[in-house]
Structure formats: structure tokens, C-alpha cells
Description:
The structure holds 2 protein chains of 2 kinds. By secondary structure, chain A is α/β, with parallel strands linked by helices. Chain A is built from 13 helices and 18 strands. Chain A is globular and about 65 Å long. Chain B has a single domain (6-255), classed as Rossmann fold (3-Layer(aba) Sandwich). Chain B has helices at residues 6-10, 28-40, 78-88, 100-106, 108-116, 162-169, 182-194, 208-214, 220-230, 234-237; strands at residues 49-53, 69-72, 93-99, 121-127, 173-178, 198-204, 231-233, 249-255. In chain B, strands 2-1-3-4-6-5-8-7 form an 8-stranded mixed sheet, with helices on both faces. Chain B is globular. The chains are: A alpha/beta, B alpha/beta. At the A-B interface, helix 3, helix 4 and strand 12 of A face strand 2, helix 3 and helix 5 of B. Strand 12 of chain A pairs parallel with strand 2 of chain B.
Amino acid sequence: MFEKIEPVSLASILPPGPAFLQGDEACAEGAIAAGCTYYAGYPITPASEIMEHICRRFAELEGRIFMQMEDEIASLASCIGASWAGALAMTATSGPGFTLMLENLGYALITETPLVIVDVQRAGPSTGQATRPAQGDVLQARFGASGDFELIAISPWSVQEMYSETIRAFSLAERFRVPVILLADEAVGHLRESLTIEPTVRMYRRSRQGGRPPFGDAEVPPMPAFGQGEKLLVTGSTHDAWGYRRTSSAAAQAALVERLCRKITAHAEEIGRTISYCCDDQPLDTLFVAYGFTARSALRAVIEARHRGARAGLLRLVTLWPFPAATVARHAAGARQVIVAEMNRGQILREVQRVAPAARGYHRTDGEIIQPDELRPLIDEGGRQ
Amino acid sequence: MKPGSNASIMRLLRTETFPTPFCPGCGHGILLGALLRAIDESPWPLERYLFVSGIGCAGWIPSPHIAADTLHVTHGRPLAFATGARMVNPELKIVVIGGDGDLASIGGNHLIHAARRDLDLTVLCANNETYGMTGGQVTPTTPLGVQTATTLQGNRERPLDLARLAEAAGATYVARYSVWHTRLLIRSIRRALAHPGFAFIEVLSPCPTQAGRRNRLGTPAQMLRALNERCVPLARSQQMTAEELQGKTVIGELVGGS
Lengths: 385, 258
């Protein structure tokens, strides 16, 4: 059974129409538009602008709480506490800080706590290059926490999407009671370009209905807040539908993990968002699969190839997790070669190869963006094959 | 029903979760009783309370036993979780309970920063000077010379004075008692609950299973008596020389008392 909840419409906070913002600022504005009432974070390049913008803007608005915490562990911990107190909570960081958050990401997953984590990826591992872009946290986001679970990760490619996908991240978090990770990168975070602000925002809000088990019964159970008189038992241990620990019951462990995963996988189509460009005249000579900033270069390469008469297309992944395997498989089937371009050593390539084994990767891990010109020879080679 | 009486505080418990997981002779049950009596004698209904605890024996003091909202979190992080709830809902009475491992070792950073912010929280540190749940390893509060699972020749690292640490970090109510001093402890918890800032109470609690057996400290009753003999009230300690205070623990309201 899926808990039916209806989306709400909110008036946009920014004036509707064209705007010009930095990616990190647009993310902050998206959070504000979605109704984010609690932000906690710790300074880190290249995500600090999100925190600073939220700090400045929250001060102008009613009922919004900003906290600079002592570290990233505490940042996410306080977001979880805030979410259970009824807030819409967000934190933002980059790779090294995201690593610190993995502990409480696991806690948010097992307690089904809706919140948004923004990871503006930079070159790693570790401190790496703080001001250089990368897409190296794709698998960290998916598998970094301990145990088995499903979560949602989204990769915005523009300032527009830093705004609108942040709103969607909040909506998905509320709808599925799950932490949603916005996997941005330094290039899109620091990019300045125009975007359009819609007059209203439509999004889901969690059910706070009391008297029902907050951890079971429904696929996505209602989530009352602290202070509502529900005597909530919230624990990171394996628990039953009412939150009582069941730390030696195989059945309880199996049922909990099954539901945590199923509530996401059963709705992969609703969560999934992919956009295809120039893919209508199959068979293609070359299909690019790309996401985030890299997809901009891939699209440019595709358009230039089309001008040269080559049949190239792009499948852009906006939702990375759960992985849109069916869509990728369908597109890959209609292409002579599939190239996954990404600023890592093949983190999404691995997933693509599970449905299109012949797919190959084009990678950069030198802290530089992938340029359209680099992709041109790959298209031309494919045409000659 | 008299507030603070046995019959009265039983109403504050989820008795279906009994027995508690505490070993015979553990001081944590006494601390739970003191907390419930203080709550029962205070003006706020239990529905207003949120209990936040972490991992370790002390994490089980509120959760799942107290019939109120409880948030049982990752090791060391209860103060960080409590910060979010505190900021979002000012109506909540938030009590954070952790052990010395939870609040002073892995969570030491959160302790000093929550105290520095003077957040309106009541924090009870059940200090048993050992990692009870994991087998009796040394903690930051284990006294010098004490044998633990990881200090076979006796602890050589000087222990942290948690009450003084909280004071230095900016806590505006700081007290220390042991579970022997239940009446003083109940009064202190009541005052901490009423205190509109960061209230920290270090509560010495014996661990007969892990610390007692290994160091041949006798029966739980003998350990409790030894705890009492070790503690010196603040006023008396001020008349004592440094030599006389060697090996003693000062108890009382150290900051913000009446």
C-alpha cells in the first residue's frame, strides 16, 4: 500500500520570471522556495556559498533557522533532529564533508527521515583540489553508508536545475521519507547564468497523522513530529512498526530492509528523470550518457556532430539513483556505440555496462571539465566503425 | 498520588519494555529513577519532553523505557541531534543522556560546542568510567591506574574532569553527583530542567560488571559506598588542601547553583 498524499502549491519566494544567479545561490533559493525551514552546515569549498546565501536569506524570512555547526557530522545530525521536530531540513557540503556525513546518512535511512544533502563535488580523494570540479562521489553517495538500502540522488546540470532540482529533492524526500542527495559539482555550483523562476512551486509534504505506526504498516508510513504527543520511539537499531528495537529478530531485520528498499525501487519510474537529446532517429552512431556539468559538453558535441551529419545523441541522467536502468537500456539498444562521459574513472559507466555491456567510458580526473572538442573524435571513430 | 513516589513515576514508564537491560548493581537504574522523580516533581507534562540518547549502556536509560518522545541516535551524536530539535521547537523540554564514552570521547566535540552555544538542554552524563556495553575498555574518564580491557597494566592517561570541561566550554548550570546522592541528584535535575540554558550534570554511576570485577572492587553495595567515600561536597572541598583532595571527587552545584 502506498500512502496517498497530495502535492501542495506554494507561491515562489523570488519574483517570478527571469533571474541571474550562481549555481550555489540557486540551490539555496530552491531550498527556500521548497519551504526549507532548517539549514545546518559547515564551511567547505565549493559549497560554502549555499550556506552563506541561506544565512543571508533566512534572516529576511519568517520561521527559518540557520545553524553553523562544529562539523559535518553534527550538521547532518542536527538536520535529522530538526526533521523529526517537523522541519524541512537541508545541509550542503563537498566530498570530504560528505564522507563525514555517511554515519548519519545511514541513521537517516533507517529512521526514514526526509532531508536533503547537497554535495557540490570537487576533485578527490580526500582534500584533493577544493576549487576543481569532479563527479567522484557518485558511488560514495550510493554505497557509502553501511548496510543495504536504496536512496535518491539527483545530478543538476545548470543553474536552473540547481534551483528546480533542489525543489524536487525536497519533494521526493517528503514523499518517500528518505534522504535525497543533490550531487552537484564545482562547475555547476560556481556557474553564473540565467534561470526562470516559476510563480508557484508544487511539492509533496509528509503526512503527520498520529495513531498509526510510524515505521511500518504503510509503504511510506506517516511521520508525526516530536511534541505531537505520539510518544515516538526513533532509533537507529532495527525496529518494528512502532519503533521498538528488534535487534535479534531475523524477520524484523529482513522486513525493514525490504521495505526501505522497496519503497524506492517500486517507484523508480516516478523518481527517475532522464532527458534525451537528438535520439529520435535510431539507430544512432553514437549515444552519449552523461549527467551534471559533463552533459553540457556532451550536448554541445552532439549538436556539432549533427551539423557534420553524424547521427549522435545524448541521454542525460538527472536522477542517478535509483539508476534508470530501463531507460538507459532502451536507448543503448538503438545505438552502435555508447559512451559514458563523466569526471571520474567510470562510476556510472559500471551501471550502464550492466544493461549495455559494450558501453565504454570517457573520463577525466584531473580537475578539469570535459570539453566538447575532446568528445568529437569519439563520435567520428564510431561513425567509421 | 504524591509526585515523585514510586507509584507516580511508574506512570511515566513503558513498563512493557521491562526488565531494563542494566546488569544487577548498575547505577544507571538509580539515575533513571532520579530523573523520573525530578520530572514528576517538575511542572511540565511528559508530553512536552524529548529524550535524546546515543550508544552505550547510558543510551538505554530513557529509550525505550520513558513513555515520551525518544530519539536514540548514533554513538556520540545525541547533542548534535538535540541541537536541531531544540532550534526548531522551543516548546520541547529536551533531556540528553549519555555515558562518558558517548558524551566525552566520541562526542566530546559536540559537548563543548553545545555548551558554548548555551543551548537550552538538560544533559545528564552517566559516568561509569568505562565502556560497559563493549566489554570494559578504558574511557577518557577512567581514573589513573585502573585496569580495563585495554589498559592491562593500569590506565596511564589522566582522566578528563567533565564538569570542569563543561564549565570551561560555557555551560551555565554545572553539577556533579553520584547515584549514591539521590536526593541531591533529584533536586539538581529539577533545577537543571528549570534552567533556561545549557545544564550539565555529571552523575557518577558504578559499573560492577566491567570495572568492579576486573579491579576487585567488591559487591555493588561496596562500590556504592566507595563512591560516597570518594565524593566531597563543594563547600567542604574548599576547606581542604590539595593533598587532602587527592583521589577525591568534588560534588555539588559547581556553576549556577543556589
